[in-house]
């Protein structure tokens, strides 16, 4: 599922993250509920109205959550109330790093699924229609719920698609390297990287892609680039970057999201894509076990919830397909073959 976030000025979450000295154990269902709630709050189509919240108070949050995520029982109301007390009302919509710091029960995939990438209406996206250097942030989740991933169509200053070559990526933390296979699609220009900063876990819009038109030294929020990040990118011949506003980590999307500037010491892991040239559809098909795992994971196969998208009447995962299958084939073929998931979300 693709999510789109517009660039906008955002709060810095670092204080919340750094103040989390101890992990808090919460119920897995509450964790998933909180993550869904925050996604809705950040989505431009369902954005949380802070003015309304100031007028109506907590009741507005409850109404909003019921409308956009699901029914609230007294226990869940109490959980939301506790969340407000814990992080402050105006930080709720920027609280993903804090939510990620909580510690729900983990579940595991047996192996990486093939997953067709679809838009918010459930239709497969067509690779040749992904805008080049899009200033909107295109995200999908893979391989588990909450594992948000950038989908980027890389291009030059004139927005012509440009191939992203395969490369070896250095992990500064260990000195080891791993292979990045390069871009896919009609111009080999489409790449996918984890959108969770490898430093302390900030997520979009704090971490975002800076297309060539916004990539200049200085600039203003949300496109401010510190001089050291700009210099590092110039040296690497990167005309666009991924930069995290929380503490300044910068990644090179032209070279496997390698580290350009710290404080991160780990590149953003990539999601391997497959482009079916006969349909123009894109599939997420796996992650490299030699790359650093997604932030706060010990393995990319670990998570707190399976992806949404199950059809409850058939039990078939709607968007988990095999190479060459169309969406409609899922119901007739895949459910008889088993799949890599161990259950629904
Ligand atoms: S979370 Fe610290 S730089 Fe991104």
Automatic annotation (TrEMBL):
<dbReference type="InterPro" id="IPR014349">
    <property type="entry name" value="Rieske_Fe-S_prot"/>
</dbReference>
<keyword id="KW-0001">2Fe-2S</keyword>
<dbReference type="GO" id="GO:0046872">
    <property type="term" value="F:metal ion binding"/>
</dbReference>
<keyword id="KW-0479">Metal-binding</keyword>
<keyword id="KW-0411">Iron-sulfur</keyword>
<keyword id="KW-0408">Iron</keyword>
<feature type="domain" description="Rieske">
    <location>
        <begin position="188"/>
        <end position="282"/>
    </location>
</feature>
<dbReference type="InterPro" id="IPR017941">
    <property type="entry name" value="Rieske_2Fe-2S"/>
</dbReference>
<keyword id="KW-1015">Disulfide bond</keyword>
<protein>
    <submittedName>
        <fullName>Rieske 2Fe-2S domain-containing protein</fullName>
    </submittedName>
</protein>
<dbReference type="GO" id="GO:0051537">
    <property type="term" value="F:2 iron, 2 sulfur cluster binding"/>
</dbReference>
<dbReference type="InterPro" id="IPR036922">
    <property type="entry name" value="Rieske_2Fe-2S_sf"/>
</dbReference>
